[in-house]
Amino acid sequence: MGGPKATKKKQHQQQQKRGIDFKKIRRKIGKKLPPPNNVTNTRIKSKAIILPEQSVATEKVGSATSKKGLTLEDLLKQTSHHNSKVRRDALIGVRDLILKHPDEPRRHKLALIEKLSQRIGDEDQSVRETLYQLLQSVVLPAWKEDIRGSLLTRMMAYIFNAMTHFSMEVRLMAFKYLDLVVQNDSLGTLISAEKILQSYLDFLASNPFNVQDKGRVKGALPGLVHCLLLLKSHQEDHLRGKFTGVRDFLHGYWLNDHSVSVDLYLVINKLKDLVPVLITRLLELLQSFHSTESIGIQLLDAMLYILQCINLAVKISVTKFQEELKSCHNKSQRDEIRSQPKVVEWYETVSSALVKLLVECPLHSENQILVKKERRYAQLDAEITQIFLKFQEWLHVPEDITNKFLPYIEMLLEEEKSDGNLVHAEIWEKNLLSFFPYIPNLISQHVSVGWRYRLLQAFTRAFMGCHPKSKLKLASISAIKEMLIHGSEAFLDPSDPEVLDIQIRWIRELPHLLVALGDKNPSSTEILLKLINHLGGCAPIHPSFLLEYEDLKTSFQAFFCTSEIEGSICYGPFLRLPQNCQRLSLACLTKFSCIDVSLLRAVTRCCLCNELDPDVLFHFMEVLGCAKNIQIANCLGFFVTILSHLKAVTEKAGAEQAQLSSRLTTLHKATDIVCRSLYAYGDAHVLLPMLEGAIVSQLLQKPELENARSLLKVICSLDSEPTRLTEGSIIALGEFLSAYLLDVIYETPINASKTAKSEGALLSMELRLYYLRPCYLLFNRSSKLVSIVLKSMGSLADDSSRVNAILEVILTMQRNAYMHQVLLQFHPEIHSLLQKISDLENSEKNKMTLEERLMVQLALDQLRNL
Fold this sequence. Notes:
This protein is an all-alpha fold. The protein is built from 42 helices and two strands. A two-stranded antiparallel ribbon has the order 1-2. The protein is elongated, with a radius of gyration of 48 Å. One of its GO terms (cellular component) is nucleus.
């Protein structure tokens, strides 16, 4: 046997025969190792490739891009990315692109709305919030007219889909999107109204809320409020005849089987189902509010929205019902409508739910509450009380429920708003504004006698205490009008001393309020004047009011003119009010049994003011001229004062024809009105002595030429041939007419350089004849008057400045064929006048210029020839 060495040797020989698997290489220390045989060479050799352009860059040249350089197509693709951050950034990029390039996205609005609508039901909250801000602040305001209708209808499909999402967050957000659409697309909302109401009905009826969700549900309710407001607005437009063209679905009334529209019937039917659900949710929220104080503010807001929805839903339904009843001609038709099964079902469902609300819903305003919640408490109580006031008669509310609300209404009427809290004052006024329309009906029919007195006194204190120019004052005036006079009968029995005392306080306050309103609130003034006019018309029927209405004259005077200090007149608000208010004030005057002198004087001062529109002046003159409550002597004095002091328009601008008409139109029309009124009186032989002295007295005060001509025309209209003027009046008129005729010549100069047929000369001759015509009539009726005038003109011919005017008067009268025959009877007077002029010419020869002497000599020659 061999040893171990022999064995190793033998093995070595066998390996040499087979070959060595891994040859061991000995390496020296410090030497670099060679690379392995299977190493890959990573060195790359390349040459530059020059391309003339790149297709991606070409596509973006000239295209609108966001801040990150993305086009609208890129951004819309990224809105569907699996990463929520990418989707949110894409929406932000869309917003930036729209703001930077508003025209580019507008061309692709269909694709844009489609892609954005797909994110409505996004599971990520940040994406939904970003989309909401994008639609609210950018897309809808900028493209409201472009995307309304079919585009927003496409968005509604995604909103309805999101309302059925398993996540409560997504569902609540869907209702916020719905609110946006409702506020921006009224037509689409009306078309989809039934489906919208059904969505809210499903959402509220499912009751998936925990305590936290009940507070957050307020975010879903504004959309329902706006939808119901829109339905109510279109309903009112339809009742007023303003049809909006919404698929004819507002044409029909839900109670008329033949003209009913299916859409409208479904809407009303959904409201019937919705009201009980809303009331149930409201009562649940009340319980949650009392048990969970930490989220009380959110619950209060949610309850306010629900109450508004209940109020609007019932109002829409009741209005339809009432309008259908009004269209009936007799009681049997109304009873037939009330007995219809669908009407009975609707009434029982809604009325039982409302009565449950009024019974179980408490009033909180009497409690001590935190300041931050006080506003919401006041609004909550006000909404509940408004529902009670609106539907008390329709619901036949029991007395115990009525008595539950009366203390709150009394407290609100007597509450002081001047506590320094502006927010509280605003809410107080807003609540009272909503209550005032229902106060008359409540006081007259639904309360006991004791409560009637208490509420009337509280209402009176509120009326007297509010600011004259506030909306509350206007609302109280409307309520007072109904409580004073309702049709032909008193709404409240004035035979009751306590009621009459309150009504007298209202009546006495009216003229003071009229002055306090001034001219800055014409709508309030118009309503107040209508009330005073209506009260004056009904006062004879109610003797209790007649005396009080007559006592308004003294305080009513300040409405026209307050006082006259040192020749300056202090006018009231009458002059600056619109014409409809001014005409209403005249109607109020005609209701007095007698217009006294002081009130008529105030009216006259306003009529003479240049600020008064001429049409209003003419209306006043016509009405007062035939009014039976003004003494004829006072009326004649009013006419004489107007004609004596009314300023004729004397604008110098424009052509001569425009100047002529503008000067005479106002006063000429006023004169015609006076003459027509005097003719309507009849008995000119009685009127002339009454007017003769006043007119002559005004003429002697030398009024303006236009005013003098108007007064002369009035005398001519009353006088006859031969004249019936007294001798004293004839003498006074003769003295006046001599100066008047000279003034006419001065006012209507005829340039000798112009030909007799030139336009300017014809206009001057026409105007001169306008002024002289009343004189011609008087001269024809009284030869004594002509003689006095000629003699008086002779006494005036004392200097050369008047000579030409006197000669021009005689020549003008001689050229008139009618007056030529009259002057032939006064040859001695004319000869004496010419002799005085000739003597004056000889004595003043050295003082006159050559041209003046030639003109006087020419006139004298013409007269001698005539």
